[in-house]
Design goal:
6-stranded mixed sheet; globular; 4-stranded antiparallel sheet; 10 strands; 53% strand; mainly beta; single chain
C-alpha cells in the first residue's frame, strides 16, 4: 500500500524555522519525484518544492526561494522540507505527494504550519 506521511508542523514565530518530514512507504524514492504542497485557509493548494533522486531539486516556488530547502534521505525513504525565515503567509497545511499530481490524487491529512506575527 502506497502511503506518504507528513509530519513536523507546528506553531512558530515569524523568522523561525521548521523541518517537515515525509515518510514514504509502498514504493521507493527512486521511482517517483516527491513534492511538497501547501494549502492556506481560503486558498487553492499550491506546489512548494519538488525533488527526485536523479536530478535533485526540480522546483521551488518563487515565494520560498532562498528560504526553503528540499532534500531526500534514500535509506530512510524520507523527504524533508527545511523551512527557514518563516513568514505569516507561509501558514498552511503542508502535504507531500508523488509528483506530478492529478485530479484524482489522494491527499492525506498533511501537517499544519502556523507562523505567528
Amino acid at each position: 500500500e502506497v502511503q506518504l506521511q507528513a509530519s513536523g508542523g507546528g506553531l512558530v514565530q515569524t523568522g523561525g524555522s521548521l523541518r517537515l518530514s515525509c515518510v514514504a512507504s509502498g514504493f521507493t524514492l527512486d521511482e517517483y519525484a516527491i513534492g511538497w504542497f501547501r494549502q492556506a485557509p481560503g486558498k487553492e493548494r499550491e506546489g512548494v518544492s519538488c525533488i527526485n533522486t536523479d536530478e535533485g531539486v526540480l522546483y521551488h516556488a518563487n515565494s520560498v526561494v532562498g528560504r526553503f530547502n528540499i532534500s531526500s534521505d534514500i535509506p530512510k525513504n524520507t523527504v524533508y522540507l527545511q523551512m527557514n525565515s518563516l513568514k505569516p503567509e507561509d501558514t498552511a497545511v503542508y502535504y507531500c505527494n508523488r509528483a506530478p499530481v492529478t485530479a484524482t490524487t489522494y491527499w492525506g491529512q498533511g501537517t499544519l504550519v502556523t507562523v505567528s506575527s
